[in-house]
Structure formats: C-alpha cells, structure tokens
Design brief:
Elements: H1 2-6, H2 10-14, H3 18-39, H4 43-47, H5 50-59, E1 66-69, H6 76-81, H7 118-131, E2 139-144, H8 151-160, E3 168-174, H9 184-195, H10 197-209, H11 214-235, H12 239-243, E4 247-253, H13 257-270, E5 274-279, H14 287-290, H15 318-332, E6 336-340, H16 350-355, E7 360-362, H17 367-379, E8 383-389, H18 390-393, H19 397-405, E9 412-416, H20 433-437, E10 444-446, H21 451-461, E11 469-472, E12 486-488, E13 491-497, E14 506-511, H22 516-528, E15 532-537, E16 540-542, H23 546-553, E17 557-565, H24 570-580, E18 587-592, H25 602-608, H26 613-623
Parallel strand pairs: 1-2, 2-3, 3-5, 4-5, 6-7, 6-8, 8-9, 9-11, 10-11, 14-15, 14-17, 17-18
Antiparallel strand pairs: 10-16, 12-13, 13-15
Helix pairs in contact: 5-13, 7-8, 10-11, 15-21, 17-19, 22-26, 23-24
Bound molecules: thiamine diphosphate, 1-deoxy-D-xylulose-5-phosphate and magnesium ion (MG).
C-alpha cells in the first residue's frame, strides 16, 4: 500500500507515472476489499470506479474544478485520492461517512444519497461559475446508468444542453446495473452505444494507419470517419445525446485508465457540455462480487474477504415477512401487482417476481413515475403495491397527493427502512413519511409493530380500493410478536398497570409501529413509579383514530413514541385532534427531532435522541413533576 499511503491529495495522483497509476489502482482495490469487508459498505460500486476516479483526478483539478457524484455511494475512491484513508470506522459514529461529506473535505459537495440529483447540481454550479467569472472552471458530474433512469437527470440534461458555453462534463458510469440490470429504453440505448466499441477501435486504427499513408489514406480515413457517424446512427443511434445538443465521447473502457484519461481530456478541451460514456464493471477485480448475480455486492455487511460470505447470517426481518405475505396476497388476488424503483431484491419483491413475473414492474430509479403509473394501474382495475424505502418516497409526494389521493386511487405503498436507519447518514433515515403523508386527504397509514400486525396491515391495505394506503416498517431484524391484552374501539391495548398510588396521575402511552416495544417498557418504568398506565398501539395511525382522543380524555397525561420526525408527526396530530374535540389532556410527543442526523448506528441515535424507555419515562415523570427531588 506504499503508493496509496503516499497519496495525500489529487496533486499527488497527477504526478504519478503510468506504471504507478496501474499499481495505485491495484492497491486501491486491495484496500477496498480488505477494509469494506470489515466495516460493510458499497463495495461493488466502488470497485467499479477505481480507474475512472483516478483518471478524473488526473485530468481535472478538484476542488478548483467541481466534482459531484450522483447518489455518492461510489465516492470511496474519491475519498482515498483526496487524503482520507482511514476507513476503519466507515459509516460509524466519528468515522468517514459512506457518502461525500462537506465537513470531511473541500473536495466533497453533494451529501444527498438520493439518486439522480447530480446533474441538476452540476447545472447550477456551472451557471454560478459562468455568472461569477469562474467560467474557465469545469464541473464534472459522475452519474450511474441506474441514476440516469431518474426523471431529474433528464430535466437537468435538458437544461445542461441549453448552456453550450458552460464547461460541464457528464460522466456516465455505465456498469449496466442498478442493483439488478438497469431497465428500459435508456438501458437499451446505452447498450447499443456500448456494443459499438468496435467502431471506436476501427476509427483509432484508421487514424493511425490510413492517415499516415499519404493523401489516398487520409481520404480513406475521412470517408471512414464520415461513415462512422452514419453507421453508428444506424447501429447505435447516438441521436439521443447529440440531438439534445450534448457532445458525446465514448464508449470508453472504464478500466483502461489511460483510455479514460484520454476521453476526459477530449471532453475537457471541448469547453462545453459533453457526455463521456464510460463502461465499467460493478465489483471489478473481486471474484465474489463479480460472481454475485443478485447485485454484484452493491451494498454488503461484514463479509469474509476471501469468500465474500457474510460473517453474520442475515436475521429474520421485516422485509422477509413482507416478501412472504405479498406472495400469499398475490395468489388470491390476481389484480394485485407490484412496483419497484430498481430495488426488487432489497425491498423483498424477488419471490413475488419469481411467482408472478408478469405482475411485477421495475420502473428504474423513478419513484415519481412509480406512484403516478400506479394511479394509472388502479384506474385500469389493478391494485398496485409500490414497494420503496421510506426516504425515497419523499420525492414522490406530489404524485401521491395529486395523482393517487386526489383521484382516490386504491394504491398501496409499502415503506421499508422507515424510521432511523443510521449508518447511511442523514438522507437515508426514513423519518419523514408520517409527517409528510399526514396532510394527504383520504390517505390511510399503518405502522405495524410485529409480524402478525404487518401481515394484517398488508391484507387490509389491498382491500382498500378508493384511497391510498401505506404500510411502513423499519430496517432489519423483527422482534417477537407483541400480543394485545385487550382492544378498545380498534385500538390494541398492550398493557395496563393499576399503579400503587391511588392519587397518582394516569398516563396513556401510545407506541407507533415498532416503537410499541419501547412503549411497553416505558409503561413498566412509569408503573414502577406508582403511576396508573395504559399502553396502546393504534396500528392505523393516519388519520389519527378518534378512539385515541377518547382514550386520551380518560387519562391525565398522554405520551406518544414514534420513529419519525416529531414535528407534524402522530403525536402532534393527536394533540390537534384532541383539541378539536375538546379533550384537554396534555399530549407529550416523543420522536425524532426535525434535524439532519449524522451517520451512526441506530442504537446510538436512539440513545442520543432519548427515545429509549428510561429516557422517555424520565421525561414523562419530569413533565408530571414526579421525578424524585422535583416538586409534586
Ligand atoms: C431516489 C433513490 N432511489 C433509490 C435509491 C437506492 N439506490 C442506491 S444506489 C442505487 C443503484 C444506483 O445505480 P447506478 O446509478 O447505476 O450506480 P451504480 O451502483 O451502478 O454505480 C439505488 C437504486 C437511491 N439512493 N435514491
Ligand atoms: C445507496 C443506497 O441508497 C442504497 O444502496 C442503500 O445504501 C442500501 O440501504 P440498505 O443497506 O438499508 O439496503
Ligand atoms: Mg450502474
């Protein structure tokens, strides 16, 4: 690793000889496998951009030239080349973020891990450069073929093409995959461009030999060059990019560092908007990743570096229950179809796809399209189930509101990774959905607490054909079933404690979704302090059930506990509904604060945000003035 250890900035990379560049690439690959095997992370995507990133930093002068990475999960090599080599705490509290981070480096700009935004960033930066006298500087956006299936990317390309005098280089990192092979017409187009690699080779042969053989040879080359355009348009209609007014360079072998450098220098010299189409391989150079059919080790946990096998077997989780139940539903409901935004495996739709291949649709990284096309499917008599990570539904809010809800479409959204996820950083926490969807007229949202309630919520949702339904659950392992001891007007009662002190206040503890476990434990702590406690789980939390306001009215104090942003969350809405119906019981809403959370483990965040039972109970006792040593 001697060479990698000598790299402290891109200037060091630019000083390397050809031989050293090749050795650096080897050292980086070895480092990535050894380090990411220990910590987990996006191993496959970063193995695919080693030579590309080296070439980027040899051709462009970051941070004078601005580099933005779409989604940012493939920026590990960029971090290594900009002086950050301590990956020992990657994605952990105090360690490197798994994405670009402005607090880490002046070379990092876009921290958002939501795909398809980089080109818009680049367009804006290029416009600012032009207006502020920095027009000589380049903006370079690296975007994957998957991210290029997102609508924002095409909005941006349309604008980028309008700026013919802006120095903007779009590098398409085309490895043919998101998780699965990338879908759709764009993928097919990139494929045809990819397969015309032969023309580039013929052209370069022509340049070297024909043009050296005097006028006849030069004539022949010029004819061939003219022909290339014609043939390419026949075999690989380049029109898409060039018709947009974007110069196209490529396709170039993304693992031939010199070829990539050459293509980037051509693009840099062009001085206007240009696409460089780089062909890479996800997982390149690491056999277990190259052979991983599922997703080329897109995102791995801790693995054995030699075999690539996971060190800890994946435990029974929320996703696997959804995966099983949606198949059961699909067997009895032929109208139920499933939609994924390029995440078939991660959201658990693979078994459904295996059994009902004609009833599952991968729309690419296109959540807005997923939502509105689902409204179309519902109009056509289907019941679509749109399975996405909670945080990624944010970008489809208007489609949920104005295409699905406004038209009372029976669409079910299944939100995996809802709540605190932690190690993927601020833009990955699924903490926004309940506050965001709480204002959607007619929408019904379920937050199941365990396997039975998840299965029940899914079965209930697909029976609703005149409104959007949402089922949200957290990442990872699922706790044991938490049975109700009673039910009051559709609200599950999970525990009752009579309380030792006759005159002690009574507290209603409302657990939302997976936080029901915390609610039960909080109730036990409060009971130990002599309070009369009722612990409930409404299961369907939007709209806030009227029965919950009645239960609140029967208690002296209410505390709600939710794995979502507390502003506008379930607790806040319950307080509003209580006021609406004249219930004066104070509602103490406990949840995630309205701020962006740095990467850390979920448990660390729960502790830091005082979402654990002891902290919640302490805050309730404080509010009631019943903490030992506080005024009664
Ligand atoms: C809006 C949004 N939807 C889904 C994801 C989840 N996701 C992360 S990376 C990825 C695949 C990206 O594919 P590509 O852009 O080709 O990059 P590659 O991993 O191939 O380098 C997806 C779907 C996301 N980050 N953002
Ligand atoms: C970058 C991205 O959005 C995904 O790769 C995400 O990091 C995966 O998250 P999980 O590991 O929770 O599936
Ligand atoms: Mg890709």
């Amino acid at each position: 690793m001697a060479l990698l250890e000598s790299i402290t900035s891109p200037a060091d990379v630019r000083r390397l000889t050809r031989t050293q560049v090749a050795r650096l690439a080897e050292e980086i690959r070895t480092f990535l496998v050894e380090s990411v095997s220990r910590t987990g992370g996006h191993l496959g995507p970063n193995l695919g951009v080693v030579e590309l990133t080296i070439a980027l930093h040899r051709v462009f002068d970051s941070p004078r030239d601005t580099m933005v990475f779409d989604t940012g999960h493939q920026a590990y090599v960029h971090k290594l080349l900009t002086g950050r080599t301590d990956f020992s705490q990657l994605r952990r509290r105090g360690g490197l973020s798994g994405y670009p981070s402005r607090t880490e480096s002046e070379h990092d700009v876009v921290e958002n891990s939501h795909a398809s935004t980089a080109l818009s960033w680049a367009d804006g930066i290029a416009k600012a450069n032009q207006l502020q006298g920095r027009g000589q500087r380049h903006v370079v956006a690296v975007i994957g073929d998957g991210a290029l299936t997102g609508g924002m990317a095409w909005e941006a390309l349309n604008n980028i093409a309008a700026g013919q005098d802006r120095r903007l280089v779009v590098v398409v990192n085309d490895n043919g995959r998101s998780y699965d092979p990338t879908i759709g017409g764009l993928a097919r187009h990139l494929d045809t461009l990819r397969t015309t690699q032969g023309y580039e080779n013929v052209l370069s042969w022509g340049k070297q030999t024909l043009r050296r053989s005097g006028p006849p040879g030069r004539f022949a080359y010029d004819a061939l060059h003219g022909l290339k355009k014609g043939i390419k348009d026949v075999v690989a209609p380049q029109g898409m990019f060039e018709d947009l007014g974007l110069k196209y360079v490529g396709p170039v072998d993304g693992h031939d560092e010199q070829a990539v450098e050459h293509a980037l220098r051509r693009a840099k010299a062009f001085g206007g908007p240009v696409i460089v189409h780089v062909i890479t391989e996800k997982g390149r150079g690491y056999t277990p990743a190259e052979q991983d059919v599922a997703d080329r080790f897109h995102a791995v946990g801790q693995i054995h570096p030699e075999t690539g096998l996971p060190l800890a077997p994946s435990r029974f989780g929320w996703t696997s229950v959804f995966a099983d139940e949606i198949v059961r539903i699909g067997r009895r409901r032929k109208d139920v179809v499933a939609i994924t935004a390029a995440m078939l495996q991660p959201v658990g739709l693979a078994p459904f796809a295996a059994e009902f291949p004609d009833r599952v649709f991968d729309v690419g990284i296109a959540e807005q399209h997923a939502a509105t096309s689902a409204a179309g499917m519902a109009f056509g008599g289907l019941h679509p189930v749109v399975a996405v990570y909670a945080t990624f539904l944010n970008r489809a809010f208007d489609q949920v509101l104005m295409d699905v809800a406004l038209h009372r479409a029976g669409v079910t959204f299944v939100l995996d990774r809802a709540g605190l996820t932690g190690d993927d950083g601020a833009s990955h926490n699924g903490m926004w959905d309940m506050a965001m969807l709480g204002i959607v007229p007619g929408l019904r949202l379920a937050a199941p607490r365990d396997e039975p309630t998840l299965r029940d919520a899914l079965r209930t949702s697909v029976d609703v054909d005149d409104a959007p339904t949402v089922v949200r659950y957290p990442k990872g392992a699922m706790g044991d079933p938490l049975p109700a001891v009673d039910e009051v007007d559709g609200i599950d009662v999970l525990a009752r404690h009579d309380g030792a002190d006759a005159d002690a206040p009574s507290v209603l503890v409302v657990g939302v979704g997976a936080m029901a476990v915390t609610a039960v434990a909080t109730g036990e702590v409060l009971a130990a302090h002599g309070l009369r406690v009722t612990v409930v789980d409404p299961r369907w939390v939007l709209p806030v059930p009227i029965a919950l306001t009645k239960l609140a009215g029967a208690h002296d104090h209410v505390v709600t506990i939710e794995d979502g942003v507390v502003d506008g969350g379930i607790g806040a809405l319950l307080g509003q509904r209580c006021t609406d119906v004249g219930v004066r019981t104070p509602v103490q809403a406990v949840g995630v604060p309205r701020r962006f959370l740095d990467h850390a483990s979920r448990d660390q965040l729960v502790g830091e945000l005082r979402l654990g039972p002891n902290d919640v109970a302490r805050d309730v006792l404080t509010a009631l003035g019943r903490l030992p040593g506080t005024a009664q």
